[in-house]
Amino acid sequence: MSLNPNAKPFSFNPNAKAFVFGQTPNIVPLKKEATPAAKPPANAPATDATAVAAPAPVAAPAPVAAAPAAAPAAEAKKEAPANWDEEDNVGKLAEKVAQTKIEDEEPPPTAEELAEIAEIEKEEREAKAAAEKVEPSAKKKKDTKTFKVHDEREHLNIVFIGHVDAGKSTISGQLLLQTGQVDERTIAKYEKEAKEKNRDSWYLAFIMDTNEEERNKGKTVEVGRAHFATTKKRYTLLDAPGHKNYVPNMIEGTAQADVGVLVISARKGEFETGFDRGGQTREHAMLAKTLGITRLIVLVNKMDESTVNWSQERFKQVEDKLSPFLKQWGYKVEEEVTFVPCSGYTGAGLLNDVDPGLCSWYKGRSLINTLDDLKPINRAKDLPLRLPVIARYKEMGSLVIIGKIEQGSISVGQKLELQPSGKTFSCVGIQIEETDVDMASTGENVCVKVKGLEEEEVQQGFVMSGAGEACGTCCHFEAQVVVLEMLEHKPLLTAGYEAVMHAHTVSSECTVSKLLAAVDKKTGKKAAGRPRFLKTGAVGIVRISMAESVAVENFKTCPQLGRFTLRDEGRTVAIGKILKLNQLKPKA
Question: Residue 331, class by beta-carbon neighbours within 10 Å (0-12 exposed, 13-18 middle, 19+ buried)?
C-alpha cells in the first residue's frame, strides 16, 4: 500500500474519545462509496462541500489503524453504549484485569472496602489522640481512688502551754507512759539520770526534754513532739516552752496545734505568779487565741500537792479568776473552755477519770476522755495545698521537709511549688508518724521527701503549695492590729515602729510604715482621718513592710496563714490579721 503524497496532514480531533485496548470504540462505519478510489484528486481545489466534510478525513486512517481490532469488535457483535465515557472504560478494564489474576491470589479491595478501611484508620487516629489528651487527668483520677487512707481516726494536734514549771513536760511524759509509747527500760534509765542530777521527780520530763541543756536547767527550750493514739483519735503532742525567753518557740509550736491545753499549777503561790502581770499564763492564753486555738482545756495540775490535796476550793479559785480573763480575749468559756483537775506526777485525771475516792466533787471527764469527746474539726480539705515548712534535713541523699498541712492535701507524684522562692519540684514520698503513705490531708504532720530541690533552697517559714496554686507572697501588707501592751519607754505605736513579725512558722523583722485608720472597738467602723499613733488597747489599720518577701495569705483566704503577732524586746506588743497583700518591691 502506497501513501498518497497529496493527502492532507493528520490533525487531532479534540472531541474524539480515547482508545483503550479490548474495548469497542464508538466508530461510525465508513460507507462503501467513501473508499479511497472515490476520493477527489489531491490537487483539486477545496470546495465548500469538502470544507464542511473536513472532520470526516480525521477518521480516514481508521480502517488501516483499526484493522486488527475489527475482528474482536465483530466477535463482540455489540456496539458501545451511547453514554460510554472514560470512567466506564477504566472500570471495565479493571474488571477484565482482575479476571486474569491467578486463582489463589486475594482479589484487590473494592472501592467500598478501601473507604471502610480509611474510615477505620481515621477512627483509630482520633481515638489515640483523644486518649493522649485525657490520659494525665484520667490517671490522676485513678490514682486518687487507689490512695490508701493512713488511719480513719481523726487526727488532732494538741499543744501544752503555760507558765514555766507548771508541769507541762511531766504531763507529756506521763501521757506517753500511760499510752504505751515508752517502755519500762527507758523509764528506768531516765529515773537513774534524774537521781544523779538530784532531780528525782524530773524523770518523766526527760521523755520530752531530750537535750542536756533542758535536763540540767529543768526548762524546755525547743518544742517537743510525740505521738500517741486512743481507740477514737490519733494525737500529735506538742510540748511548748514556758519561759519568757523562748516565747518565739512557743508561738511556732502553738501555730501547729488544733487544741490548746493550758497547764496551771495549783500549788499555792505558783498560779498567782504565772497569772499576774508579766507571767506567761496570760501571754500564752492570749497568743493561743491569736494563733487560731478556739478549743482550750485548762488543766489544773499538782492537785496532789500537800498544800492543795485535791481541794475543791482551790480548783474553784483558779476557775473563777481565769474565766473572766479568757472571756475578755474572745473565748466562749461555756462552750470552748473545759477545766480539768489532775496530777501529772501520779497520772491521776490524765488517761482515766479521776477516782471518786480521791476527788469526789469532780464529775467531769479526764484529759484524754475530754479530748476524745470533742466534736470533729471542720477541715479545709478541698482548698489549695498550704504546708508551712517547720524544718528540713537530708536522708540517704534525699531532701525531707517537715511541716503541718494547714489546708488541702498532698500526694506522692504531685508537682509542687515553694514560696516565696517560686521553686518547683515534685513529691516522691510521704511519711506520717514514720509510716509511708500515698497521701496526707489537712491537719496531718508530715515528712515529705522531695525531688528537684536543694537543701539550701528551703528555709523555715517557706510554704509548699500545689503547682499553679501558689501561696501569696509580699513584702508589704495591710492589716488590722490590736495593740496589747506597749513598752514603758515606747508607749505609742507610730509610723516607723520596728518589731519582729511572727506568722505561722515564719518570723521576719518589720516596720509599721503607715497608720491608715483607727477602728472603733465597739462598732468595728473606721474613724475619719488617719491617726498619728495607736496606744495600748487601741485597734487600727496599718501597713507593715519587710525587707524581704514572705509567704502569707489574706486572713479570709487562709486564716492559718493570715494571723500574726508583733513582738519587741521579748514582749508581744500587738496581734493582727492580714487584710490585703501589697505586691510592692522590698526596700533596697
Answer: buried
